[in-house]
Amino acid sequence: MMMKRWIMVISDKGGTGKSIFSRALADRLRRDRIDSLLVDGDGTVGQLLQFYGERDDAGRLQEQTPDRGVMPFLMTGGVKDRDALVNMLEYEKPVVLCDLPAGSITFTRQLEQDVGLLDLVTRQGYRLTLVNVISPYRASTRTVSQMIELGGDRVDYVVVENAWFGDQGDYILWYGGDGVPVSKGKIMLEQQQGITLRMPRLEGRTCALIDAYNLTYCAAADDKRLPIADRSRVHRWLKAMDSELDKAGEVLGIAKENPPRAHPDSALSAMG
């Protein structure tokens, strides 16, 4: 049996793709039928809530429940909102995925000082995983060392390079080269035996269509309101994303013993 996982997708830098990664992981958890709690720290405007929250037949968001919906709280709110996140430990779900906005490393540090978050998560039987989605720029890459300084040896770490910003050669502030030293965060990540993933790029036009129809990624791969070319892109993106997620399956709460995932049944399956 896998250890319970409390997963926080965090960074003090915005615009790196944290919510895209969170949506991809949420999609995978649901396709694999893993009993999980989805949490959105952007309140009622969060992407995880907007795309994976429970809706009625008219498409309106319903009151969310921990069993089927997405539980929102406002990270930038007061003590009551911060406590709302901590109190979700009492739902005792095997996997908890928290998508948090920019400033979330500072927020998590405050929670640690206030309620002893790391010890509390451990006492509730969870292992904490911190995920940081990075761009090639210094303001993003330096947040990795801040994340690891916060969690130390009590946390598992995943760093996700977002291919939207370029290929590996563009991440010179992370890998080093041309006189630029290797990032302190990358060195610390290796010391902690952290995992690096690469989030594949999905075309902007396809992303816009997914937004227009408010679709999950799995639904978008088989929704005929999208042209077949776009459905094919989503299908291939999901397969590539799943291959990356598999590399960190244990720390992301994805059980290796799960049955094969059911990708959308359509002609797209024949496209590979």
Structure characterization notes:
It contains eleven helices and seven strands. The protein is globular, with a radius of gyration of 18 Å. It has a single domain, classed as 3-Layer(aba) Sandwich (Rossmann fold), CATH 3.40.50. By secondary structure, it is of the alpha/beta class. It starts with a strand and ends in a 25-residue tail after the last helix. The protein has helices spanning 18-31, 47-52, 79-87, 104-115, 117-123, 138-151, 172-175, 184-191, 204-212, 217-220, 228-247; strands at 4-9, 36-40, 70-72, 95-99, 126-134, 155-162, 195-199. The longest helix is centred in the last third of the chain and has 20 residues, at 228-247. The model is unreliable at 264-272 (pLDDT under 50). Strand 5, helix 6 and strand 6 (155-162) form a beta-alpha-beta unit. Helix 6 (138-151) runs parallel beside helix 8 (184-191). A seven-stranded parallel beta sheet has the order 3-2-4-1-5-6-7, sandwiched between helices.
Q: Mean of residue pLDDT? A: 92
Number of strands: 7
Rounded to the nearest angstrom, the radius of gyration is 18 Å
Q: Helix and strand succession? A: EHEHEHEHHEHEHHEHHH
Number of domains: 1
Helix content range: 25-40%
Distance between the termini: 32 Å
CATH hierarchy class name: Alpha Beta
The third-level CATH topology is: Rossmann fold
Q: What low-confidence regions span 5 or more consecutive residues with pLDDT below 50?
A: 264-272
Oligomer: single chain
Strand order, main sheet: write it out: 3-2-4-1-5-6-7
CATH architecture: 3-Layer(aba) Sandwich
The assigned structural class equals: alpha/beta
**How many H/I helices?**
11
Task: Indicate the overall shape.
Answer: globular
Q: Largest sheet, described in full? A: 7 strands, parallel
